[in-house]
């Protein structure tokens, strides 16, 4: 894995760990980025649950109004009922997050400082 790819993966992981929407549902235990397949795997202890649940987001990058955006075209979950709810809520929708909004304080460390350059 190249240094650039590693830094990009760290920036995506940092984005996920600090994303307010994700944090509303529970506590993130682990994040794994497969940059070749462009899949982010996130293990979350959902509020009110006793076991960790795996979510996967299929991501990419695109140019938007505010510059480069991190986009999620599909989010899946290992739990059938959550997966079906995600399909209903997100069918045909793409979630878009401007990278510029997640630089500096929101993306910590080196990853945050150079996020704009990487994407």
Describe the structure.
The chain has 119 residues and is α+β, with helices and mostly antiparallel strands. The protein has one domain (3-104). The chain contains five helices and five strands, in the order H-H-E-E-E-E-H-E-H-H. It has helices at residues 3-18, 20-25, 80-90, 109-113, 115-118, and strands at 26-34, 39-46, 52-64, 67-77, 95-98. A five-stranded antiparallel β-sheet has the order 1-2-3-4-5.
Short description:
The protein is built from 5 helices and 5 strands. It is of the alpha+beta class and 119 residues long. The protein has one domain (3-104).
Low-confidence stretches are 103-113
What's the average pLDDT?
83
**Number of helical runs?**
5
The outline comes out as: globular
Tally of discrete structural domains: 1
Give the helix/strand layout.
Layout: H1 3-18, H2 20-25, E1 26-34, E2 39-46, E3 52-64, E4 67-77, H3 80-90, E5 95-98, H4 109-113, H5 115-118
Antiparallel strand pairs: 1-2, 2-3, 3-4, 4-5
Features:
35% helix; globular; alpha+beta; 119 residues
């Amino acid at each position: 894995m190249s240094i650039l790819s590693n830094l990009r993966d760290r920036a995506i992981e940092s984005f996920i760990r600090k994303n307010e929407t994700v944090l509303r549902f529970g506590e993130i235990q682990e994040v794994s980025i497969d940059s070749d397949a462009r899949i982010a795997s996130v293990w979350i202890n959902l509020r009110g649950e006793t076991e960790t649940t795996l979510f996967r987001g299929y991501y990419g990058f695109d140019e938007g109004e505010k510059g480069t955006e991190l986009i999620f075209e599909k989010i899946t979950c290992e739990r059938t009922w959550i997966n079906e709810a995600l399909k209903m809520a997100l069918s045909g929708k793409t979630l878009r997050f401007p990278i510029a909004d997640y630089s500096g304080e929101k993306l910590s460390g080196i990853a945050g400082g150079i996020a704009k350059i990487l994407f």
